[in-house]
Amino acid sequence: MSRKFLAPGALALALFAATPSWAASDADLAQIRDEIRQLKENYEARIQALEARLKDAEAAAAKPVASAPIPVPAAPATSSSSGIAAFNPAISAVLQGRYANLSQDPEKYAISGFAAGGEIGPGKRGFSLGESELAISANVDDKFAGNLIVSLTPENTVSVEEAYGILTALPNGLTPKFGRFFSGLGYLNEQHQHVWDFIDAPLAYQAFLGGQYGNDGVQLKWVAPTEQFLEFGAEAGNGAGFPGSERNKNGAGSGVIYAHTGGDIGASQSWRAGLSYLQTRAQDREFGETDIAGNDAQLGFNGTSHVAIADFIWKYAPNGNAQYTNFKLQGEYFWRRERGDLTYDRDGALGLTRTGDYSSSQSGWYLQGVYQFMPYWRVGLRYDRLDPGHAGYGANATFLATPSFNPQRTSVMFDYTPSEFSRIRLQFAQDRTRPGATDNELFLQYILTLGAHGAHRY
Amino acid sequence: MKSLVQWFLLTLFAAWVVPASAALNVFATVPEWGALAAELGGDKVSVYTATNALQDPHHVEAKPSLIARARGADLIVATGAELEIGWLPLVLQQAGKPKVQPGRPGYFEAAPFVALLDKPARLDRAEGDVHAAGDPHIQTDPRNIARVAGPLSAKLAEVDPANASFYQARYKSFADRWTAAIARWEKEAASLKGVAVLVQHKAFTYLIAWLGLKEVAALEPKPGIEPTTAHLSEVLAITQRQPVKMVLHAAYQSDRASQWIAERAKINAVALPFTVGGDAAANDLFGLFDDTIQRLLKGAQ
Question: ipTM value of the model?
Answer without folding.
Answer: 0.88
